[in-house]
User: Fold Ornithine cyclodeaminase from Roseovarius marisflavi.
Amino acid sequence: MSANTDDGLLIVSEEICEKVIRRPDAFSAVEAVFGAMARGDAYNFPVVREAIGHADALYGFKSGFDRAGMVLGVKAGGYWPGNMAKGLTNHQSTVCLFDPDTGRLTALVGGNYLTALRTAASSAVSIAHLARKDAKVLGMVGAGHQSTFQLRAAVEQRDFERVVAWNPHPDMLPRLAAVAEELGLAFEAVTPEELGAQADVIITITSAFEPLIMADWIKPGTHIACMGTDTKGKQEVDPALFKSATVFADEIAQSITIGEAQHAVASGLIGEGNLTAIGEVINGTHPGRSSAEEITLFDGTGVGLQDLAVASVAARLAREQGLVTPVAL
Ligand code: NAD
Assistant:
């Protein structure tokens, strides 16, 4: 059943999103839309992001259309740094879904929980398609809000036995350790050099503006998912890594402008032609990893179509489970 029914608008709260959508749902939705993007069946529209000159807020829209999934919509929201003091999350977003046949608004879906879920699904998709099958050690760089979502989704992709972690603010690591323990995984706080030497898969999910992980520290065969860089100027890894790795991205245009690849491209280390859309691997038009020694890097910048994909699933599940009542607009 689609959310695009003709009997009213669905309002799907954050609470309902948390109740209905599971990690495998988000994984499938994100994997499918990455595939559709690479086939040219789905496209993201230009992102709008503006400082509004009030409350230090950054406000913007991410929108797109997935012709394969028949999902049209926009995620609106942004970052309000003063929210924490008011007991609210600093990142605030809402997804609006429209009927692609008529333009009618079909659903308003809380976007905060879904953003974390779809971002974790993105790195999980990259691990599923690019990491070595025998990966045992997961390296986490970052220990903020997103990190636990990342950890939970990643460990479902391989038989990980151990988590090694480093964060610029070590006092934040216990929350990651608690999730690893809950998942039955050994956890160790290490230096970033040790992390590079031990991890088979690395996820970076920080707000850094300078490289935290150097190319020389990464061992052959590693898969690294760079997830924190989603704005011009942010940076998590040594640009030299882009030279030694085979590089994939959710969306190449976004990766080279606001993603982790921006620095390697700006310094002339690589060009746009060195990046492959992960959707090509999903669709089987690119072989993905070619050897056990190859380093693979995924630049997950976060595209609007990911938000729309998971919001559409949440709206459909909420409706199927009788948790929402359509209202007339
Ligand atoms: P958070 O504020 O909860 O945690 C921030 C993390 O970055 C912590 O690990 C913190 O120690 C670290 N950090 C903070 N300032 C730093 C600095 N100056 N240098 C190095 N590290 C620093 O944030 P979060 O919600 O966990 O998000 C983490 C990052 O992921 C943010 O940059 C956010 O914009 C980005 N993000 C990306 C996507 C995507 O789709 N790619 C989606 C959501 C969030």
Observations:
- The mean pLDDT is 96.
